[in-house]
Amino acid sequence: MTRDSAQVLDKYEDSDWKELPVWVREAAEAIGYTKKLWNRDKEPDVCEMDWEDLNASQQEAAKRLGYSQQVWEAQGEEATSKATSAMKGIRLEDVHKHLKWTIYCIQLYTETVDYQFRVNEDTGLSMHANRVVEAEEVIIQAPVGPSVYEELFEMPQNGNLSDERKGFAERFMEWQRTHQKATRVGAQNMNITIKLEDFSNPPITSKEHRPMPSEDFPNYDMEIFEHEIVIAEFVPSPSKPNYVLPATRRFEILHYDEGLLGLDGEEGYDPSVLKRPPTLCGMEARSLELPGHFSNHASGASSTAFDMMYGSISKEFPPIIGGDLPEWLSKEMAAKERSVDMDKHFPYVFTRRGLKPGTEITTDYSRWHWSHADTSYSSICRRTPIGYFLGGTNRKRLEWDSLSPKIQRATRILGYTQALWESGETTPTFEKSWKKLSLQEQEAAINLTGYNKESWNKDKDSNSESDSSPRISAFDLEWAELSEEQKKAAAIIGYNENNWGEDEDILGDDLYFYNLRPELRDAMVVLGETEATWEEDAEEDTEPWFDCLCGDTDCHSSKEKGGFRGVKYFPLEEQRKLAPLCEPWVQQQISWSMYQLK
Fold this sequence. Notes:
By secondary structure, the protein is an alpha+beta fold. It has 19 helices and twelve strands. Strands 1-5-6 form a three-stranded mixed β-sheet, with helices on one face. A three-stranded antiparallel β-sheet has the order 4-8-7, with no helix packed on it.
């Protein structure tokens, strides 16, 4: 018997124990539920018993919850069938392997002529002006690190590991063994573990995503993909050899979720034509600029610096003019217009006003951050519209070289080669019903085609094969019920007979699927989990990143208003005023909101 099949219990399956009506809680207790079992989606042993073995009070409670003897026993047989099916699983050698991690190594000076890194007790690593900086002056002008970046940065395709990169890897591995698990305020990805062999994986993406620093632009202005990680080492500069950060802060691991997503928006997006919100499905690459990444959180006029956006943006989303804008916003509009003649390729960080030495460098996050939901796999903005990649009526199939590594991997899982993709044909996999697709084929179909179980089967008129039963994974089974292949996969992750089924998550808390090492994700497939199932129930995180420091209690991001959660939560009038200064992704979301009102 499974809880989510019961009529009454199904109604409350998303409720916590304390939220259940008293009569439901009492009946559930009578058949063995406790607060702990309910909140952890576990079932009591009574659920495995035959109806005739239940005592009178248990039968009565089951009836109150919508069960009859026939329903109880039928669902028990169904659960057994599902468990047996789940136990068959997939062999590890049959898993379409996830991409190996690519490691990029960067050294940053702890102090330059322009700025100094400091560790703040409340916010972690941050940048502070190291000289008098005039208003609208470029903050970062001096070299940001040693000039050996070419030898250090990436593993060459010829497989020859440079002495500089080898030394970096060895220092990092020693630091990771000693300090990574230490409490470090503001540090991310504490649960990500790098292995020495990761440093020997050459990049599979184009160099155009990773321009190196130059004399004119000393920053690292990169685009990174899901399988790529940047490791930054903080070293003293020749002019300040004695200024070092605490040993726990010598390295920072900057994984994919540290990049800014969707800055360029969806190419050619027009809400009046597409009749849908913009999508991030075709924009795997995320922007990561160093050292500017370590500027701290701020919103609006409280920030000390801002990124000059490309001048063309104003033409796409004309600014409001006249007295409708606050003074600080009018000044920023004017500063933006003055930046149009500058080199449009580089996102220079300018001061909003004159800064004294020691002033923290903060930037306005409302320029690019729409919502926390943008990072969630299950959010609407991450879904693939049907025909987006494959093409269809009034839309051409995307070029192979324009597909991201993740989407190219999905095409291969579904049977494509580059030649077959470019031919415009489909593969035999598309003739299968959803039920007959493997777990990885289902995930690939979701990512590449935009279909889910219902729409895939409907498109093939295969409703007769539809399967309405809930998904079951190996994690729903007892250790003794696992196949030998599943036990082997569980051991790769770190489970054994003693800790299997325990509440402690040995993988770490709040990790995205791509945060897991590739071999762990491969093992998870054997256990019945992919990104599509791992994050299918993820809810939007509405916790604020920070509280605006402008002092106005009516500010959209003040503590009184709930703090900064993204432009999505600003009043629409405020969104419209900010739009000309925002990145295209945020502009497109605002355009969709305005279109819906029309």
